[in-house]
Amino acid sequence: MSGIVELRNLHKHYQQGELEVKAVDGVSLTIEKGDFAALCGPSGSGKTSILNLIGGLDSVTSGQVILEGTDLAECDNAELAEIRKNRIGFVFQSYNLVPVMTAYENAAFVLDLQGVDSKIIREKVMKTLADVGLQGLENRRPDQMSGGQQQRVAIARAIVTKPAIVLADEPTANVDSKTAISLLSLMQTLNEEQGITFLFSTHDQHVMDRAKRIIHILDGQVESEEFK
Question: Exposed, middle or buried: residue 122 (CB in 10 Å: 0-12, 13-18, 19+)?
Fold first, then answer.
């Protein structure tokens, strides 16, 4: 395996009134290609902050986020937008689907932004929707789908571009335990059969049970790691 993401002495501080909060406090970590890893810890531990820094959604205070050789701290907003569009897939706990778009249109959204030919988009999207168990539901809008189905659309959108890594922030938080297990089985299959790299932020025991690597975060620091 080779490193997809390398964090080097990463810090993220912000002001809360007169108090300086160290959301991320000197984290050094490498996410390997093919990882199925989880950042775990209580609310406020810094795990989502780390995910947002890796995704280029927030700027570092100091240190480096190296994604496939590119230091995100040295990129401007336009360059970060290109990296997010082409190299990172996102799955959020609130799905973040466009409500007026169908499942097909939501899954195709990033490919459209990339300027991919419409025929190729259709081939990729239809295959990916089938891969995530949504064959036949491509014309439904989010309000016509269950929470689990909406999250499957979000997963399809995240993986259809073949990104370097998928960042999943509490992806099971808004679904019941049965649906959570189903979604995790799906992502585990995508990891094992297609080699897709996943990094979760979670405090869900279901995710921790499935993760091959658990990175415990506390007070903005890596407290410990375990491999399965």
Answer: middle
Does residue 162 fall inside a structural domain? Answer: yes
CATH code of the domain in which 132 resides: 3.40.50.300
Range of the domain at 162: 33-52+76-227
Q: Per-residue b/e over 55-84, b at no fewer than 16 CB within 10 Å? A: bbbbebbebebbbeeeebbebeeeebeebb
What tokens were used for 96?
């973040």
Contact partners, residue 185, CB within 8 Å, separation at least 6: none
55 alpha-carbon distance from chain centroid:
8
Is 89:158 a contact under the CB 8 Å cutoff? Answer: yes
Instruction: Give CA–CA dist 116/9, Å, rounded.
Output: 37
Number of domains, the chain = 1
Q: In which region does residue 195 sit, left (phi positive, over 0), alpha (psi from -120 to 50) or beta (all else)?
A: left
pLDDT at 1: 47
pLDDT in tens, 59-82: 999 999 999 999 999 999 999 999
Over residues 82-139, the pLDDT tens digits come to 999 999 999 998 899 999 999 999 999 999 999 999 999 999 999 999 999 999 999 9
Helix axes 103-114, 77-87, angle to 10 degrees: 130
